Amino acid sequence: MSNEQQIIDSNLNKEYEYGFVTDIESETIPPGLNEDVIRIISQKKDEPQWLLEWRLKAFRRWTKMKDPDWAKVKYPDIDYQSISYYSAPKKKELSSLDEVDPQLLETYNKLGIPLEEQKMLSGVAVDAVFDSVSIATTFKDELKKAGVIFCSFSEAVKDYPELVQKYLGTVVPYTDNYFATLNSAVFTDGSFVYIPKGVRCPMELSTYFRINEANTGQFERTLIIADEGSHVSYLEGCTAPMRDENQLHAAVVELVAHKDSTIKYSTVQNWYPGHPETGAGGIYNFVTKRGTCLEENSRISWTQVETGSAVTWKYPSCILKGNNSVGEFYSVAVTNNHQQADTGTKMIHLGKNTKSTIISKGISAGKGQQTYRGEVKIMKGAEQARNFSQCDSILIGSDCGAHTFPYIDVRNPTAQMEHEATTSNIGEDQLFYCNQRGISSEDAVSMIVNGFCKEVFKELPMEFAVEATKLMEVTLEGSVG
Amino acid sequence: MLNIQDLHAGVDNKEILKGLNLEIKPGEMHAVMGRNGSGKSTLSNVITGREGFHISKGNIEYKGQSIIEWSPEKRALAGLFMSFQYPVVMPGVNNTYFLKAALNAKLKHHGKQELDAAGFLKLIKEKLTEVDMDTSYLQRAVNEGFSGGEKKRNEILQMLTLEPELAILDETDSGLDIDALKIIADGVNRYRNKERSFLVITHYQRLLKYIEPDIVHVLIDGKFVKSGGKELAIELEEKGYSWLES
Is the pTM of this model over 0.80? Predict the structure, then answer.
């Protein structure tokens, strides 16, 4: 048995650090999904009639749809009737952090994201979503001064119904796909951001998601609108406690960028990946993320670091409608043990001189299976469109796999396309070189992997870059070192 | 320092070293010369503990302890260093980060205070001038885009920084022009002292003009067939190896 293999085997049992459950009384409706459940959700949230109708249309549509089966992932059929579609911690409507359940704050402390500390030190406003209802939103006042709206989705429905109605479903329509349609029917909360004309958001906006309630599906909905000439950077990070039964997460994120605006959306995802040896109990992460560069000179940038979940199905995409608009996708995905990921992006070029960049770094270890699936589409009117794609995979050990499916569809002869792809192993020579300098194999692998991911990590905001590097170490300590 | 007794070793059941004996005392510079295929690189790989090389008989002692069961990093931490014939590229891994990690691993192993970023930077800047490299090195990835000469200078820089007690220079002269060769030889010569030992493995005696060995061994078919002073290297240069082959 090779040295590398021994290290992999001896470390495969690394426990999920964030596997704990917070004991808070929750208000949960019984499992099951039908029109009545949707009416209850809408009623509990005191929603306007149009939104209930939108949900119902989505639900009726969904009942006629089928699970997508084209992704290179395997998981048992999900029993949607066994999921509870609404769960909220009982104490709510808090005006300050002091009123937040101390146990909940402790949970955040365990995750290394104490709100208080963030409030004081990092200047990051936090909209903490615990299960389905937002608990605490900080920095609201300061953002208000700048005219920025950053609140939970439910609040936005109450306070800014015209904005929500104008934009909801314009990027990801309720008919879009199986999981997005399900989300449209049953979403409970999420985040809402509006940056007014000419405003540069004074701080990074951040939401930490956390799935807590056993047997509760998590259906978040996020809508971010950048008005003309504005700029916003949004951070999303997730960890989930350990569970025996699988947990479904089907979120929808919609981004709308108006003229001359920029939206930067960064994700660090660290959900429970399942039991290291059997893969049991991990999160199913079936997410629809899409942004539209609606008008000229707008820019949308997705950066993701995906280290968790048992099954990931996720393609943050950009529709480049405005002339001279720019779409970017920077991704690091890690699959270890029994994790499966089918992830990538879509860049749809509609406007003239539109430009897109795709940098995807995949790391597979243990029995992990990973697929990059990307589509670049240059439509007829997209004169002088340009795309650069780079998809690199690294394999650690001999039981994992990496697959690349780049689809390219060019309908305008002036397009310039570049595609580069590599697959490599962590070489015995690299490990030996490090060992000969006194560096352990574990540290060597972490060093090599971080070097491999550098192009993506440098796109992350500072706070996340540190977390991402640490996460990679934790994730791969599990598998190679 | 190093004591090799009746060493039989090889790869994939093929015996390459066939009963090799070598004793290097503290402060000595030994040179091993031989043709391609004589077992030179097997010798360096076996001493440093590379995976895939098997010892079927004999022993290797380093500072009085048998090291044949030791991992490569344990040997390295104990003061054994090899300048690679083909230094490995580590894409995206910064030189500063790499070398600091290596140095701190060693300091930690010996129960010493690890260096912080500022302390390391000060140290590395001094060492860089010794091998005539500029500070742009600090921003580059390990051996990525390095010329042949730069790679070898990087090996010597790492040696000077990690301060090993026994350094194996494996074909360090290959692919070097005369200026780079002199820089490297100067670095090695300055590093020589009464406690530090070297094993220089080379095909030609070119490097030995600049780094004078105390003892030269001729390796043919996995055994030392002749050992002598530095003049043996010159003799080999003139006569070739065939007169020593039986």
Answer: no
